[in-house]
Each structure stands twice: as structure tokens, then as C-alpha cells.
Amino acid sequence: MLGAAYLIYLGVLAIRHRRAGTGTDGGDSHRALTSWTLLRQGFIVGVTNPKTIVFFVAALPQFVNFHAGVIPVQMMVLGFVFVLIAFVCDAVWAVLASSAASWFARSPRRLAAVRATGGGMMIGLGGNFALTGNKG
Q: CA-CA distance, 12 to 4, in Å (whole number)?
């Protein structure tokens, strides 16, 4: 219930602040982040992502051939391949997201509508979680 309430709260905040940084909010509430700040935040998210940790601990060793020898080198090569694939995929998503964000940002009205829609979806999900409860 606490998670559902928090999700609803975030949705309400998203709707209330949908015009922030669009030039129609009456002030300069948009704070630009440097590339290094964004890179640092992305690195921290990637390194602390539970899915990545689980993959490296549980799934990656399944691909090691114990009869081929030098297990640490195999793990490093497999880890490097994983990081390379993740980097390429994330770079493609970043370029696509940047293009979409630029398109939305060209129209303050369009950007506010997308933010309000996202807030509404968060409220709907929070309400769904609150009403359905834990069936397990």
C-alpha cells in the first residue's frame, strides 16, 4: 500500500509540474545537467542494477567451459562482450530518446501533455496496485 501511495504521489507531482522547464511555467525551473553528471548517474545506475548483478553472478558462469581452462580469462572475455553489447544497445536507445525529447521539447504544449499523461499513468498504476493487493 505504501508503494501504491508513493506512485500516486509521484503521478500527482508529475501532473502539477508538467510545465516545468517549458518556458510556460513563469520561471526558469529547468536545470541543465552536464554530460559528466549524466554519465556518472548512468554508470551508478548500471553498476547497481540488480539485473546486471544477477546476470554476472548467476547467468554468466553458465557459459564458462571448465575444460577449456583459464576460467578468469573466460569470465573477463564474456563480461567484456556483455558490456560491449550493453553499451551499443544503450547508445542506440540514448540517441533515439534524445531525438524524441528534442521533438517533444520544440512544443511546450506537447511536452506538458506527455508529462501529464505519464503522471496519469502513474496514478492509474498506483490505484491498480492499491485495489488489487497481493494475491500471493
A: 12
| Dihedral, 31, 35, 36, 41 alpha carbons, nearest 10 | 70
Residues contacting residue 133 through CB under 8 Å, at least 6 positions apart: none
CB 64 within 8 A of CB 78: yes
Q: Grid coordinates representing 6?
A: 508513493
Q: Which three cell numbers stand for residue 126?
A: 498506483
C-beta of residue 112 within 8 angstroms of C-beta of residue 22: yes
In the block, residue with C-alpha cell 499513468: 121
DSSP string, 70-95: -HHHHHHHHHHHHHHHHHHHHHHHHH
- The single-letter DSSP state of residue 67 is G
Q: Structural domain boundaries of the chain?
A: 2-132
Amino acid identity for residue 99 in this structure: S
Predicted TM-score (pTM) of the model is 0.56
User: Around Cβ 69, how many Cβ atoms within 10 Å?
Assistant: 8
pLDDT in tens, 25-56: 544 444 567 778 878 888 888 888 888 888 88
